[in-house]
Specification:
Two copies of one chain form a homodimer.
Chain A lengths: L3 H11 L15 E4 L4 E11 L11 H17 L4 E11 L5 H17 L3 E9 L4 E11 L14 E5 L9 H4 L4 H10 L4 E4 L4 H12 L2 E5 L11 H6 L6 E5 L1 H9 L9 E8 L3 E5 L19
Parallel strand pairs in A: 3-4, 8-11
Antiparallel strand pairs in A: 1-2, 2-5, 3-5, 6-9, 6-10, 7-9, 8-10
Helix pairs in contact in A: 2-3, 2-5
Chain lengths: 299, 299
């Protein structure tokens, strides 16, 4: 079976690029012309029972919440604001209306919190439950942040802490929409994405899109409570913001005592001209090493 | 198990309406503010193996084509032009890259024909194959056609012929985007939708949204070759345009010898103030009857 990253690469090369797009396949969301001052953002993400959650264990409200939240996280990763959501469901025979209603309760609550209107959807019969949510958002043209803008010497930063997803956070996390809005409003961010497949894998993607590499300081990784460094680097579904900024901008961001609206920000490494992800135990070390740990391959 | 139409009604009442929308849940596509002259249209539709097609029998190119075409049909039903597509796939273990590539070939070809750029998507692991496609389109504000505008006395019209879907047409049909564009450009259409669940069911939906009823002339139904009236009325997935217009406008449309860009148009009945769908064998008959045949419940 072909891994997801390879398959996306193949599909991306197979489909023609539209010259009118700012960004198509290969970022958290597609960036499309909207008006003089704004881009339209479109993102879709699917969760499947048994892969992204377990119906037998998860609260329906949490499943609904997650189905929307992962998409709000994608819009946030572009520096944008979500506006509208479409919800397409695959519903197995025998699933009760009560379950579906609780699922929508989870969606409704999170949608309200982030000013997102659920404007449509689709219901299909299927063997296993799945939810494919599309979110449309917008971003000011001079504030959009892509994955390909990291420059050698930039600082690498991350919000919150990493590695807590398997302890249930992946069902209840708060998408970093407000934090991202604060970042692009007050600072110049060179590249950004959300951490969905683990820091190791996602940092590799971010650097490859930018044609750069990275040196990560392991003592600076914000490891979640009761979690190991390996989990913090490799477990998926943190949904924190991973971004780069010039050292001067990074300094300004880190100087904010309150972090980003209360969410801590940590500088975890530096962008390098040389490709590949390398590690130091701390920044001042001269010894550089590689780690063979892999991120989460959810496919 | 709750039927789809009831479930959509429940979900629609459960989710809050956004005052800024022209139209949310309950039409072929959501109609959202875009710019001074245009609305943004968003539609999503999913096909599932074993429900909407059979992987063992269908060509992958046809499956890809259908996944996009049903959404282009939704945009057409609003009088709009499709612009962008997102493709979310559920991929079972063991499905070959060769199959997926052929699936995308079907999407790519149809997307090109209708000037639609595939700008993103999502791949998930799943037990059964599904494709959930979202299309964003646009429509001039004074040309958008909703489901709720039919007036008593309006003529009811339909493009093409009905009932051929099970003979394979549902995999290869051409969405009526160009015909709809021609309709809204030259004529005043009061209500429109695409026929996806069978004329009986969809006409009922269209009339209910408009708070009206209909009288259908059975001798005027454009029945597909080698097909019965019952199939033409009840089989789903015709993807023809079902629309209403004042008698004067309908006359002008029917006077076009070439139909709509070569596609025939047929007047099949009249909108009535009285709710319910009634039938006459021919328009001049006085005898009115009801039919208990039901459309396709794909859920």
């Amino acid at each position: 079976m072909i891994p997801e990253s390879l398959l996306i690469g193949k599909i991306r090369r197979f489909l023609p690029e539209d010259a009118g797009l700012k960004k198509g396949i290969g970022d958290d969301a597609a960036v499309l012309p909207l008006d003089k001052k704004h881009y339209l953002l479109l993102a879709v993400d699917t969760i499947v029972d048994g892969v992204d959650f377990r119906m037998a264990e998860a609260k329906p409200e949490h499943v609904g919440r997650k189905a929307l939240a992962i998409n709000l996280s994608d819009i946030a990763a572009m520096g944008g604001q979500p506006c509208y959501a479409l919800v397409a469901l695959g519903i197995p025979t025998g699933l009760s209306y009560f379950w579906i209603r609780r699922f929508y309760t989870g969606i409704k609550k999170l949608a309200k919190e982030f000013n997102t209107a659920v404007v449509g959807g689709d219901l299909s019969r299927s063997k296993e439950f799945f939810a494919s949510v599309t979110v449309a958002g917008e971003v000011e043209k001079n504030k959009v942040v892509l994955r390909d803008g990291a420059k050698a010497g930039d600082s690498i930063l991350v919000t919150g802490s990493l590695g807590g997803s398997l302890a249930g956070k992946h069902l209840t996390f708060t998408p970093r929409v407000r934090e991202a809005a604060c970042l692009v409003k007050y600072f110049k961010i060179s590249a950004m994405m959300d951490v969905s497949d683990g820091l190791m894998r996602d940092l590799d993607v971010l650097m490859k899109e930018s044609g750069k590499g990275a040196c990560v300081f392991t003592d600076s990784i914000p490891v979640s409570r009761a979690c190991t460094l390996k989990k913090a680097l490799c477990d998926g579904e943190d949904f924190e913001l991973l971004f780069t900024a010039s050292p001067a901008e990074a300094k300004k961001i880190l100087a904010r005592k309150e972090g980003l609206l209360g969410t801590p920000v940590q500088r975890i490494g530096m962008v390098t001209a040389k490709p590949g992800i390398y590690f130091k135990e701390k920044e001042t070390d001269t010894k550089v090493f590689k780690l063979s740990w892999k991120g989460y391959e959810h496919f």
